[in-house]
């Protein structure tokens, strides 16, 4: 009981020592002027985010040294038929695989070592096998299967991996008949 009396006395003293605030008068409301629908107020535009910068890749400069190495491989038959598989994207970003594949085709074609399977033949074979054009034949077995269907001697399989700061390309030249990797090369994507 004594604790309650002390508590009440301390509470009264504490409250008595608080200065009281003068009563506040409400501010008069500001009049709202209706805006006709055809005269909507113009608000400043939000800041438009900057689109990501596209990284320009030197596919010719990337492909040329690897193709140089590949054509020096011992035991390659000159004039043999080669299927160049679409370059596979294993990066964490967007990659212009069509441009990369075309640069690879140009680099190989300029060496006059292989006879390349035409794009029309590849597209027809893909359709016959039920492969979409976007399918980069992610598995080596799919690439070998397409090459066997086309009755070619070699298939060139390429994968780009890494991230936006550092990307590598790995190429493998495979003998279609056995699936044996005859040559393999790795280089930085420039």
TrEMBL record:
<dbReference type="InterPro" id="IPR014094">
    <property type="entry name" value="LpoB"/>
</dbReference>
<feature type="compositionally biased region" description="Basic and acidic residues">
    <location>
        <begin position="37"/>
        <end position="51"/>
    </location>
</feature>
<comment type="subunit">
    <text>Interacts with PBP1b.</text>
</comment>
<comment type="similarity">
    <text>Belongs to the LpoB family.</text>
</comment>
<dbReference type="GO" id="GO:0030234">
    <property type="term" value="F:enzyme regulator activity"/>
</dbReference>
<protein>
    <recommendedName>
        <fullName>Penicillin-binding protein activator LpoB</fullName>
    </recommendedName>
</protein>
<dbReference type="GO" id="GO:0008360">
    <property type="term" value="P:regulation of cell shape"/>
</dbReference>
<feature type="signal peptide">
    <location>
        <begin position="1"/>
        <end position="25"/>
    </location>
</feature>
<dbReference type="GO" id="GO:0009252">
    <property type="term" value="P:peptidoglycan biosynthetic process"/>
</dbReference>
<comment type="function">
    <text>Regulator of peptidoglycan synthesis that is essential for the function of penicillin-binding protein 1B (PBP1b).</text>
</comment>
<feature type="compositionally biased region" description="Pro residues">
    <location>
        <begin position="21"/>
        <end position="36"/>
    </location>
</feature>
<feature type="region of interest" description="Disordered">
    <location>
        <begin position="21"/>
        <end position="51"/>
    </location>
</feature>
<keyword id="KW-0573">Peptidoglycan synthesis</keyword>
<keyword id="KW-0133">Cell shape</keyword>
<keyword id="KW-0564">Palmitate</keyword>
<keyword id="KW-0998">Cell outer membrane</keyword>
<keyword id="KW-0732">Signal</keyword>
<keyword id="KW-0449">Lipoprotein</keyword>
<keyword id="KW-0472">Membrane</keyword>
<dbReference type="Pfam" id="PF13036">
    <property type="entry name" value="LpoB"/>
</dbReference>
<dbReference type="GO" id="GO:0031241">
    <property type="term" value="C:periplasmic side of cell outer membrane"/>
</dbReference>
């Amino acid at each position: 009981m004594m604790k309650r009396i002390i508590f009440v006395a301390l509470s009264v003293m504490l409250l008595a020592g608080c200065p009281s605030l003068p009563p506040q008068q409400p501010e008069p409301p500001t009049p709202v002027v209706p805006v006709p629908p055809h005269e909507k107020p113009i608000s400043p535009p939000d800041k438009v985010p900057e689109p990501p910068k596209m990284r320009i890749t030197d596919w010719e400069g990337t492909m040329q040294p690897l193709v140089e190495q590949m054509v020096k491989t011992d035991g390659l038959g000159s004039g043999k038929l080669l299927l160049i598989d679409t370059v596979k994207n294993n990066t964490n970003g967007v990659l212009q695989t069509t441009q990369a594949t075309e640069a690879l085709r140009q680099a190989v074609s300029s060496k006059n070592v292989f006879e390349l399977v035409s794009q029309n033949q590849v597209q027809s074979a893909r359709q016959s096998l039920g492969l979409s054009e976007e399918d980069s034949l992610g598995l080596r077995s799919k690439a070998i299967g397409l090459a066997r269907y086309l009755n070619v001697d070699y298939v060139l399989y390429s994968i780009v991996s890494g991230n936006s700061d550092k990307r590598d390309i790995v190429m493998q030249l495979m003998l279609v008949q056995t699936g044996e990797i005859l040559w393999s090369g790795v280089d930085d994507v420039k």
